[in-house]
Amino acid sequence: MKNIIDNTATFAQPGHITKSAGFTIQCSDYTNQSMKTYSRKDFYKICLYDGECTIDYADKGIAVNGKILFFGTPHIPYSWEDINKNIAYSSLFTEEFLKTNNNSESLQQSPLFKIGGTPIFNLTDSQAEAITEICNKMIDTYNTDYLYKEDLLRNYINLIIHEALQMKPSDSYTKHKNAPARVASLFMELLERQFPIETPQAPLKLRNATDYAQGLAVHVNHLNRSVKEITGKSTTSHITNRIIAEAKALLKHTDWGIAEIAFSLGFEYPTYFNNYFKKQTGTNPTAFRE
After folding, report:
1. How far apart are CA 36 and CA 39, in angstroms?
2. CB-count exposure of residue 18 (10 Å: 0-12, 13-18, 19+)
3. Residues with Cβ < 8 Å from 52, sequence gap 6 or more?
4. What pLDDT, on a 0 to 100 scale, did the predictor assign at position 103?
5. Which domains, from first to last, does the chain contain?
6. Rg (CA), the chain
7. What is the distance between the alpha carbons of residues 23 and 38, in angstroms, rounded to a whole number?
8. How far is CA 180 from CA 175, 184, 186, 225, 276, in A?
9. pLDDT digits (tens, 9 = 90+) for 97-118
10. Are 71 and 46 in contact (CB under 8 A)?
């Protein structure tokens, strides 16, 4: 391992990013290192890879042989088995690290990370060289004492994202099943369209799995099965996590009262919101804001 860096100088467990840090980058040049467990990860991942491997991603099986750029999301389970690797750079980060304000577009809406998208981009030698240069700059930047290095690291991540958006995604995969992935993709897109909450006078309307199933014109059981199969998490978990994320943003970035925030998120009474927030975060909204 050439270099591993993150905000706390530790990488808590394989497959987990330290939440207080929100970012890490690593470069490895050894072979046969695999992530064989098909599971949902806790972070977004951008990987520059040169070698041969097999990736199982959502409803796709992807065969890789050459230089690629891979985009992984915590909302879709995947496994990775190396056959022969030359080198790989991996940047792991949370959405909270990359988003600087509540109005920033969610990564779930990006063509690179959305369910149903293609996470693999084949690279030419010149494209791989350009991405490698950015990765090396990320490592060099993190190892400095530059006061605004986190902003610079975000810029480098966004630069890689924009480089990829100009490329054509790979079609070297086999599709195993369509319906669950399509339903899960539509659910995630509908969920994101409910946010951000702009005013307490336009409260959140879709609050539970049944609401979303009705909005998608599918049976709630079919929705729940599809979302669980493709993302590894329940429909309710996705909804809860998104509501809590929005609640935190509103508490942090607005001067709305707790009652206004509760109402904007679809809670009839502030007490219901307080209990809901404390159950999910371990603290009450007032304490979180302070």
Report:
1. 9
2. buried
3. 64, 65, 66, 82, 83, 84, 85
4. 53
5. 3-174 (2.60.120.280), 177-289 (1.10.10.60)
6. 20
7. 22
8. 12, 6, 10, 8, 30
9. 887 765 556 777 777 887 777 7
10. yes
